[in-house]
Design a protein that fits this description.
Layout (H helix, E strand, L loop, with lengths): L6 H10 L11 E14 L4 E7 L8 E4 L3 E8 L7 E4 L23 E8 L5 E7 L11 E6 L13 E10 L4 H9 L9 E4 L6 E4 L4 E8 L6 E5 L4 E6 L2 E2 L4 E2 L1 E4 L4 E7 L6 E8 L7 E8 L18 H9 L27 E8 L2 E2 L2 E2 L2 E2 L2 E3 L6 H6 L21 E3 L2 E5 L3 E8 L5 E5 L4 E8 L17 E2 L1 E4 L3 E8 L4 E7 L2 H5 L3 E7 L27
Parallel strand pairs: 1-4, 3-8, 9-12, 11-20, 21-28, 25-26, 27-35
Antiparallel strand pairs: 1-2, 4-6, 5-7, 7-8, 9-10, 12-18, 13-17, 13-19, 14-15, 14-16, 14-18, 19-20, 21-24, 22-23, 28-33, 29-32, 29-34, 30-31, 30-33, 34-35
């Protein structure tokens, strides 16, 4: 299937969708999505998948900075369901985050209308189910935020725009995977890699023209390397940050991450391989698509280009080359570099160590010795209604404790406008990736071994990029800085979905005791109530 899209057409499409502008208010876009099961032969085997409006992957959301999205989601599955908007900051609005700590799941044969704004953001993002192991069956899709026409971008408008959702894939049913994890088993090795839910796809362009590729790793557990045969890739944007425009032969994209590149079709007219393959795995799984020159009469030929021969060290060095474009704006007119994050003294340092303990004889995953369990009442509702006993702000320490692992509904308390340093310490031999809802953060340092205060000397305090998901290499650490300017209850989680499901997550409560609409929006009038919140009135 040929999939292309010209940037200036987006705005015409949005107009057709009923965009309104009243009293200079930002436009509203209305959607209705129905979530159902369907059958698809993905890797040559018929299997149950999750469809949105009959589509796998789900519909692509193309919106413009500051658009308001009103999306009615109808759940026709046999299990409760939630959708989360990966990387959307939900300014002052964790009520719409779509995770179990903020929202009651939508019951079968019921619906919920999400209402949120793409406030002050540009870039390539995704959405996916946050409940159970639904993500293993699909339900994911692209969410692209195009810049406002009055805000310049640091490159010429591309001649076309392609979205590529890449990720590992399992033949097993999502309920089978869930039951296996519940029994104490670890996640099996994936069966394949997909590009846009397929094993074959074609992307067509004209020789001499430049095209944007939006690449997101929507898989469950595996880092991927992305490359295009015979073509250089110019990195221009990473999760909302405009970056220094370096050229790359291949790029590592870890679970939950998104990147945007420009590719000029400057080679002889023929077809070329587009490749996504697993990284850091003994068995390498590969998916290929085709970059087709419109004037080509020659099919793809030659060997599929190989991934880099070097592993973690090479990947870490590549990560260090991602730098903020200080003179460019992002969604707002002020330059990105006008915020001098490196001159701010953090109010606290938090060190988070992941682990894989046995608790009650079963495999769990933990943060600082605490493995998270979901309560029947969302934390956000418990907080709002002052329901005691739902979560604890004392169970999770700000430093690794070394104590025996425990189960808890763990929340870490912080104050609005704190500026914190967070170190992700990975003492395991496996690749890790971490995501923070409601925010982006400066990724200031990567290093091997144990983090210590003297490692701050290696931090990039000048032009580190901001993003919402960062990788942590085996037996290594990653340091980030976060400006806590968005009040709410925010999920901090492993993006490796088996680890998230079995407890490698917690919530960050960013709080100001004075209730004010300047800090946070009111509880939605259509809020779903469950658990101990049933019968209470907003």
């Amino acid at each position: 299937m040929v999939k292309s899209f010209i940037p200036h057409l987006v705005f015409g499409v949005l107009a057709v969708l009923g965009v309104s502008l009243v009293n200079a208010e930002d436009p509203y876009l209305y959607f209705t999505w129905t979530v159902t099961y369907g059958t698809r032969s993905i890797l040559g085997v018929p299997q149950q998948v999750i469809l949105i409006n009959g589509q796998f992957p789900g519909p692509k959301l193309d919106v413009v900075t500051n658009n308001n999205i009103i999306l009615n989601l109808i759940n026709k599955l046999d299990q409760p369901f939630l959708m989360t908007w990966n990387g959307i900051k939900q300014r002052k609005n964790s009520w719409q985050d779509g995770v179990l700590g903020t929202n009651c799941p939508i019951p079968p044969n019921s619906n919920y209308t999400y209402k949120f704004q793409a406030k002050d953001q540009i870039g390539s993002y995704t959405y996916f189910p946050s409940t159970l192991m639904h993500r293993a069956a699909g339900g994911f899709g692209a969410l692209n935020i195009i810049h406002r026409s009055v805000i310049p971008i640091p490159y010429a408008n591309p001649d076309g725009d392609f979205t590529l959702l890449v990720g590992d894939w399992f033949k097993a049913n999502h309920k089978t995977l869930q039951q296996s994890l519940d029994s104490g088993k670890s996640m099996p090795f994936p069966d394949g890699v997909l590009i846009n839910g397929q094993t074959q796809a074609t992307f067509t362009g004209d020789q001499g023209k430049t095209y944007m590729f939006r690449i997101s790793n929507v898989g469950l557990s595996t880092s991927l390397n992305f490359r295009i045969q015979g073509h250089k890739m110019k990195l221009v944007e990473v999760e909302g940050s405009h970056v220094i425009q370096n050229l790359y032969d291949s790029l590592d994209v870890h679970v939950g991450q998104s990147i945007t590149i420009l590719v000029t079709l400057d080679q002889p007219p023929k077809d070329y391989y587009i490749v996504a393959s697993t990284r850091f795995t003994k068995t390498v799984l590969t998916a290929t698509a085709v970059l087709h020159y419109a004037n080509s009469n020659a099919p793809v030929s030659g060997l599929v280009p190989a991934a880099p021969a070097n592993g973690f060290d090479w990947s870490m060095e590549q990560a260090r080359t991602y730098r903020w474009n200080l003179t460019s704006n992002a969604a707002r007119p002020n330059p990105q570099g006008s915020f001098h994050y490196g001159t701010i003294t953090p109010t606290k340092t938090i060190v988070l160590a992941n682990s894989a303990p046995l608790i009650n004889g079963k495999l769990r995953y933990a943060v600082n010795g605490v493995s998270y369990i979901n309560p029947d009442t969302p934390l956000k509702l418990a907080d709002y209604f002052n329901i005691p006993g739902v979560f604890s702000t004392n169970s999770l320490s700000e430093l690794p404790s070394g104590r025996a692992a425990t189960l808890a509904t763990s929340v870490m308390a912080t104050s609005l406008h704190d500026f914190i340093e967070v170190v992700f310490q990975n003492n395991e031999n496996t690749m890790q990736a971490w995501h923070l809802d409601g925010y982006d953060f400066w990724v200031v340092g990567f290093g091997s071994g144990q983090w210590a205060p003297d490692k701050r000397k290696s931090y990039n305090l000048v032009d580190a990029l901001t993003r919402h998901t960062t990788q942590v290499y085996p037996n290594s650490w990653t340091a980030i800085l976060v400006s806590l300017d968005n009040q709410g209850m925010w999920n901090v989680r492993s993006t490796l979905w088996d680890r998230q499901y079995l407890g490698q997550q917690f919530y960050l409560r960013v709080w100001n005791p004075v209730r004010s609409l300047a800090n946070e929006y009111d509880i939605p009038s259509n809020v779903l109530l469950c658990g101990q919140a049933v019968g209470r009135h907003p």
